[in-house]
Design a protein that fits this description.
This protein has one domain. It contains five helices and three strands, in the order H-E-H-H-E-E-H-H.
Length: about 80
C-alpha cells in the first residue's frame, strides 16, 4: 500500500475537522472518552477514517443535524 492510499485511510485532527462536521474539541473529547481510537505520530493525533465514520453513522442525528446546518449557514452568512 502506497503513501497516497495511507493518506486516505488516516487523517490528523486538522484534516478530520475540515472533512467532517465535528470541531477539534469534540474530536478531542471523543478520543479522551475512548470512543475514538487515535495514536500520535510526529506530535500529531492520527485517526483512522473508518473509526471516525463509524462514530458519525452511529450517532443519532435529529437535533444535532439542525445544529450542524445552522452552524454551516451561519459561517456562510446565510439565513436558513
Amino acid at each position: 500500500m502506497g503513501m497516497k492510499q495511507n493518506a486516505l485511510l488516516f487523517l490528523d485532527l486538522r484534516r478530520a475537522k475540515q472533512e467532517y462536521p465535528l470541531s477539534r474539541r469534540k474530536l478531542q473529547l471523543l478520543i479522551k472518552d475512548g470512543r475514538l481510537p487515535a495514536f500520535r505520530l510526529d506530535g500529531k493525533l492520527i485517526l483512522k477514517r473508518s473509526d471516525l465514520e463509524r462514530i458519525l453513522t452511529a450517532a443519532p442525528v435529529g437535533a444535532d443535524l439542525d445544529k450542524i446546518v445552522d452552524s454551516v449557514m451561519s459561517e456562510l452568512g446565510a439565513d436558513r
